[in-house]
């Protein structure tokens, strides 16, 4: 960012938008079709993040259901626990 108090230049905004666009799978496909507006890109980003949150919740629920049906001492349960450890 520039040295001004909290101000950001158009060039910096364009650079940040470009970096954000490179992180979104949907934007990558459209990159060749031309530049996406910053507001549209921010909306796509929010939508993408919400979708990721839904996927995480769904996978967490499925994993909980799976663990509830397993013998907690089984080798499969131990493998799953080992994968979930940091």
TrEMBL record:
Keyword Oxidoreductase recorded: no
Alphabetic keyword roster: Growth regulation, Transcription, Transcription regulation
One annotated GO biological process: regulation of DNA-templated transcription
A molecular function GO annotation: protein dimerization activity
A matching Pfam family: bHLH_ILI
Keyword Electron transport appears in the UniProt entry: no
Family designation: Belongs to the bHLH protein family.
Protein name: Transcription factor bHLH135
